[in-house]
């Protein structure tokens, strides 16, 4: 067996590594162990965590390997060989871990009443807080390899990140009534809220969250076009004055409901029209479609021939008397009659 005089790991060119397994498991007492700044060295035997070493230089003896000594009945003195797995753990802060929602958050914008598909993206920083907890809770459940990178950890915790981020964003939009167009001003507060929620989760697995940022919240262009159309309509109505925008939105929804009777109630709610308003519009529609208003019957003036209401006694155009008259003989005379057709008497 080759005698290993020094056990050390100088790191990789990239700082993406989290765990590095030393290639040899055959060691001897008297070997020098060098742990660099930003590292911890962990000894394992038969899947059990033995000893942990922090930055510094150590000469391995049975005295500074107390747990491993008990596990393998390590004798005192000499360059006694022993077998153990040595893992170097990166304890520096990894600041550039990117995250993003895999599926969009679907919700109704509380200001514009438009269904949106929102996605969020950001960055976070992690640092190993407890190497023994990390190995017990995370690494033990993974397929061990010579190198474990942070990308593997990001994949492992993707579910927690996405759920917490989605929950915070949906809560801000729905419960506090912030429009998706205005939520960019709340990113700092949202980021802090999500960081607080995920910190306790990561601590269970041996990590501390150095920072967490929601860098952008966006939605597809076709969803934005819906809001843009509403904003254009609103601007036009504001130019005309008297706040008729809300009225138009109500009738837009009313028109959509008329075209899709199965979705009337949902259309009114999505359009922001209250139940009372919806019932009022329904009554109006019923009156208009089911019970049409009859036009007033008209007649022709006997003198100027203008169209006047049937009940008019005098023409509003020429002033001619258009009322029905009765002759002294009792005969009913048509308006404009000069002589009675029964007795021949002249009509005054």
List the helices and strands and how they pair.
Elements: E1 6-8, E2 17-21, E3 26-28, E4 32-35, E5 39-45, E6 48-53, E7 56-59, H1 66-72, E8 81-83, E9 85-90, E10 94-100, E11 105-108, E12 115-128, H2 131-137, E13 147-149, H3 150-156, H4 158-174, H5 187-203, E14 207-218, H6 221-240, H7 245-259, H8 264-270, H9 275-290, E15 298-300, E16 307-309, E17 325-326, E18 332-333
Parallel strand pairs: 1-4
Antiparallel strand pairs: 2-9, 2-13, 3-8, 4-7, 5-6, 5-9, 10-12, 11-12, 12-14, 15-16, 17-18
Helix pairs in contact: 4-5, 7-8
Commentary on this structure:
With 348 residues, this protein is α+β, with helices and mostly antiparallel strands. 32% of the residues lie in helices and 26% in strands. The chain contains nine helices and 18 strands. The chain has helices at residues 66-72, 131-137, 150-156, 158-174, 187-203, 221-240, 245-259, 264-270, 275-290, and strands at 6-8, 17-21, 26-28, 32-35, 39-45, 48-53, 56-59, 81-83, 85-90, 94-100, 105-108, 115-128, 147-149, 207-218, 298-300, 307-309, 325-326, 332-333. A five-stranded antiparallel beta sheet has the order 6-5-9-2-13. Strands 10, 11, 12 and 14 form a four-stranded antiparallel beta sheet that branches. Strands 1-4-7 form a three-stranded mixed beta sheet, with no helix packed on it. Strand 15 and strand 16 form a beta hairpin. Helix 4 packs antiparallel against helix 5 and helix 7 (245-259) packs antiparallel against helix 8. The radius of gyration is 43 Å and the shape is rod-shaped. The termini are far apart. The model is unreliable at 263-275 and 287-293 (pLDDT under 50).
